[in-house]
Amino acid sequence: MIRYGLPLLAAIALAFALFSTKRLSTVATAAEPVKTPPQAQFESQLGAVGLIEASSENVAVSVPVPGLVTRVAVAAGDRVPKGAVLFQLDDRDLRAELALRQANAEVARARLAKLEAGTRPEEIPPAQARVAEAQALLDDTLTQLRLMEAVRDKRAIREEDLQRRKRAVESAQARLEQSRASLKLLEAGTWKPDIEVARADLRQAESQVARIQADLNRLTIAAPMTGTILQCKVRAGEYAPAGVLAQPLILMGATERLHVRADIDEKDAWRFKTGGAATGFVRGNSSVRYPLEFVRVEPYVVPKKNLTGDATERVDTRVLQAIYVLPKDARLYLGQQMDIAIEWKGGTAK
Question: Taking 60 as the threshold, does the pLDDT of residue 280 lie above it?
């Protein structure tokens, strides 16, 4: 048993180990890809990643001054003409200021109109009557002074009374001259420098009204172009900050023809030739493809921003951006990515 049993058990264990190893080993099989990759379209081509955008490029609408949003007049998907109201900021304080400035302008306008109209005819007779009254008063004081001076015996009058009569004559003379000057001023009409000063005051008041009106107009955010609202991320009651935002308040663009912005890796930029044929493949269904027409190339190489999610993709890559236009019947969405194949025929890049 000892002589033949142990070798027999060892042989059985070895057979079991070989059987288990063979049965549990993984069998390699050919796996189908989750999605069919784009097929080569040209004999020699460049690969690029494209992002669909508006033909006008995507316009991020901002505000010139921060403020509280009181009304939003559009929604995503609306088509608006140039100058259409998009949303409104709170303008209550400026409207109150505008009413005050307009009132000041009306006062200045009325003052100027009064000066330009000149003297009223009804004002002349009262002024003439005042001159006649001053003349009569002067004559009376002169008569009293002569009577007192005609007394031969100076002891019959006091020197104080005589001096008082002389002062009364001088006062009556001054009042007569004042009345005559006032009458002459009325008859001469409005002085031209006074009219110029009034006109300057009116211009200043109107300028203040125009400044407040301009500030009011800045609070009404209008469409800078005719296009479609792509995103509307602002609501009534929210605070709209000014400046460049990570999330635009409103994103819009011209969508009659869609463009594709192709990012060509800088290591392939020397191979790119303007005007070459290109084909765009829809992400997720490479059988849907569209011929692309070259529009322009932006000659400044920029850091790559459109990421594909590939594990081997480098985020520090710089790319040359070429713009292509899609066919009119392309059923795609703005912001959608495409795989771009660009023909390369060799030679020196232009």
Answer: yes
